[in-house]
């Protein structure tokens, strides 16, 4: 019984020993290093942008001025140029219509006679004053004689050569001469007062005459500007009152384009105006509500051709932001709306003759900030969360970013290839346009010979060896 148990155990132990010996006799496999594949990336060069920032916004052409002509006098329309209807072009000073001028001509003539009559009355007063002055001179001479005569009579009375009654008679004669002189002097003062009244009456008549002449001139209605008639509201033989609408004329000496700019775009314009890159809201002054007069280009596409006009950023269209779009409405002034350019040359026959109201146009605003700007492909940008950015930053980069970055903007990074390895640079994107991004060159370590990674990468990290395709 014991042998039946021991025999299998011995066989098992012998087999285990044989297997152990066999494993001990086998040579261990040789270790071989596996070559990991190098990450292949596509790159693009970084380019220094010399054109500055360019904003493209949509706009619509609006009238520069619309002039409402109203009747300044009442009367019947006796003449109207029937060819000057809505849509007709008129020049400055061109006659449009005439209101019956006869009543106003008669009023001018009547008031002219009143002015002449006032002048005659003033001349008569001057003659009366001259005559009275001569009488005063004679009266003074007579008074002197009476004084001498009275003195002689008093001398005779002292010698008892005459009677007191004779002396009294001479005194009465002298008093009469004095009274006559005083009356003449009073007449001169009265004439001066009357002359002032006549002069005031003449001035009033002259003012009425000027008003009558103005009314007579206003019977002829002419175009105040070069422009196009928008509406014509009266016909010949119609009777019009003062203030009756006659015409509405659009001034074509200039045109305006209404468009809207975002606040970040306005910020660059204000920074350019201030001459330094600081928060524009920190600057205060008398020009807070004015826009810098920045040149802009207005373009309109027609039949595959793009026509351009030169304009300038003029002013805000009102004040405040649009509540729906949160943009600021502005107006672009085009001083020469009839001078279109094609490829930089003036054209007249092959394109639109002028900017017309209602045209939808493209507005190009160009700003040259006081900072270096780099241009990179949009595909080179990587949008990172704030936590991921902080994890990839050194202490110095994090401090620099906190100091100079705009927290309201998305946080972007660029991956660069330097010496065959990946490096990261945290950047501020100013604007993205035409598949390119413009980068703020301040406080970033970018070089003209840098190669920017534009191909997608799974898990990039700083220092990872890479190989540039091609």
Written overview of the protein:
By secondary structure, this protein is α+β, with helices and mostly antiparallel strands. Among the domains are: 103-218, Helix Hairpins (Orthogonal Bundle); 254-367, Elongation Factor Tu (Ef-tu), domain 3 (Beta Barrel); 373-468, conserved putative lor/sdh protein from methanococcus maripaludis s2 fold (Beta Barrel). It has 6 helices and 25 strands. The chain has helices spanning 2-25, 102-158, 164-218, 263-274, 386-392, 395-404, and strands at residues 39-41, 43-45, 47-48, 53-70, 75-80, 89-90, 95-99, 220-222, 227-232, 239-240, 245-261, 295-302, 305-316, 328-334, 340-342, 345-347, 360-367, 373-377, 381-383, 412-418, 421-427, 429-433, 436-440, 451-453, 466-468. Strand 20 (412-418) and strand 21 form a beta hairpin. It is elongated. The two termini are 83 Å apart. Mean pLDDT is 81; it is low at 275-283, 385-389 and 400-406. This is Multidrug resistance protein MdtA-like barrel-sandwich hybrid domain-containing protein. GO terms for molecular function: efflux transmembrane transporter activity.
Question: Approximately how much beta-strand content do the residues carry?
Answer: 25-35%
Q: What is the level-2 CATH architecture name of the domain at 103-218?
A: Orthogonal Bundle
Distance between the termini: 83 Å
- In the CATH scheme, the class of the domain at 103-218 would be Mainly Alpha
* Number of alpha- plus pi-helical segments: 6
**In terms of structural class, how would the helical and strand content be classed?**
alpha+beta
Major β-sheet profile: 6 strands, antiparallel, barrel
Number of strand segments: 25
Overall pLDDT score: 81
Helix percent band: 25-40%
Which stretches of 5+ consecutive residues score pLDDT under 50? 275-283, 385-389, 400-406
Strand line-up in the sheet with most strands: 4-11-14-13-12-17
């Amino acid at each position: 019984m014991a042998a039946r148990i021991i025999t299998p155990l011995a066989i098992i132990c012998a087999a285990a020993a044989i297997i152990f010996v066999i494993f001990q006799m086998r040579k261990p496999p040789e270790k071989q290093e596996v070559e990991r594949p190098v990450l292949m990336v596509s790159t693009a060069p970084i380019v220094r942008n010399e054109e500055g920032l360019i904003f493209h916004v949509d706009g619509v052409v609006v009238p520069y001025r619309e002039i409402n002509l109203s009747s300044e006098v009442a009367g019947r329309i006796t003449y109207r140029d029937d060819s000057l209807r809505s849509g007709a072009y008129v020049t400055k000073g061109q006659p449009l219509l005439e209101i019956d001028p006869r009543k106003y001509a008669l009023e001018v003539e009547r008031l002219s006679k009143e002015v002449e009559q006032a002048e005659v009355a003033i001349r008569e007063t001057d003659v009366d004053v001259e005559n009275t002055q001569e009488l005063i001179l004679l009266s003074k001479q007579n008074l002197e004689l009476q004084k001498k005569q009275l003195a002689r009579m008093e001398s005779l009375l002292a010698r008892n050569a005459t009677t007191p009654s004779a002396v009294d008679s001479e005194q009465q004669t002298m008093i009469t001469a004095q009274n006559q002189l005083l009356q003449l002097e009073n007449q001169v003062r009265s004439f001066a007062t009357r002359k002032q009244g006549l002069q005031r009456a003449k001035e009033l008549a002259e003012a009425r005459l000027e008003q009558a002449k103005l009314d007579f001139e206003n019977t002829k209605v002419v175009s105040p500007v070069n422009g196009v008639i928008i509406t014509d509201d009266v016909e010949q033989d119609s009777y019009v009152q003062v203030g009756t609408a006659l015409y509405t004329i659009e001034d074509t000496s200039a045109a305006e384009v209404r468009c809207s700019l975002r606040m970040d775009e306005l910020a660059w314009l204000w920074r350019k105006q201030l001459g330094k890159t600081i928060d524009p809201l920190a600057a205060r002054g008398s020009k807070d509500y004015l826009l810098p007069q920045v040149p802009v280009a207005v373009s309109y596409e027609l039949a595959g051709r793009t026509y351009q006009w030169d304009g300038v950023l003029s002013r805000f269209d009102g004040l405040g932001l649009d509540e729906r779009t949160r943009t600021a409405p502005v107006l672009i002034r085009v001083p020469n709306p009839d001078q279109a350019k094609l490829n930089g040359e003036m054209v007249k026959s092959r394109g639109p003759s002028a900017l017309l109201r209602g045209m939808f146009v493209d507005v190009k605003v160009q700003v040259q900030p006081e900072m270096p700007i780099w241009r990179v492909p949009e595909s080179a940008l990587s949008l990172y969360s704030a936590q991921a950015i902080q994890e990839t930053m050194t202490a110095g980069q994090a401090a620099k970013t906190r100091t100079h970055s705009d927290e309201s903007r998305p946080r972007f990074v660029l991956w660069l290839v330097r010496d065959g390895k990946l490096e990261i640079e945290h950047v501020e994107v100013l604007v993205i346009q035409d598949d390119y991004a413009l980068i703020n060159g301040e406080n970033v370590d970018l070089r003209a010979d840098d190669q920017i990674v534009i191909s997608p990468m799974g898990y990039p990290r700083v220092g990872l060896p890479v190989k540039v395709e091609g």
